[in-house]
Amino acid sequence: MLPPSRDKCQICAVAHDPDQPHNPQSFFYKWHFATQWKRTPTWADAMAHCPEKVRLEWTEMLTGAGIDINASDVTGGIQSQEELDTRLDNA
């Protein structure tokens, strides 16, 4: 597998600010993580490097959408943007 381009995060191959979580849905991140830790990453893993304030904000948003940040199903079973929006509106 080729490394990410220089303008992307070198851990998840997605463009994001360094203080933001890695993308646990990124194939590159899942492969990289599983190679090192022998398991599927979670949102908690993707946020581990973030400042506490960022982790709290993301945890609140994700749990508000019904996503368990410690589960390997990082989508929480959400099938569409519409379903995510509905969950967040009802949180």
Question: What do you see in this structure?
Answer:
- With 91 residues, this protein is mainly alpha-helical.
- 42% of the residues lie in helices and 0% in strands.
- The protein has helices at residues 27-37, 43-47, 52-64, 81-89.
- It is globular.
- The N and C termini lie far apart (40 Å).
Produce a short descriptive summary.
The protein is an all-alpha fold and 91 residues long.
Core attributes:
mainly alpha, 91 residues
Give the oligomeric state of the chains in this entry, treating copies of one chain as homo and distinct chains as hetero.
single chain
Average pLDDT number: 93
Task: Enumerate the spans where pLDDT stays under 50 for 5 or more consecutive residues.
Answer: none
Coarse shape: globular
The radius of gyration over CA amounts to 14 Å
* Count of discrete alpha- or pi-helical segments spanning 4 or more residues: 4
Name the beta content range.
under 5%
Major pleated sheet? none
Please specify the SSE layout and strand pairing.
Blueprint: H1 27-37, H2 43-47, H3 52-64, H4 81-89
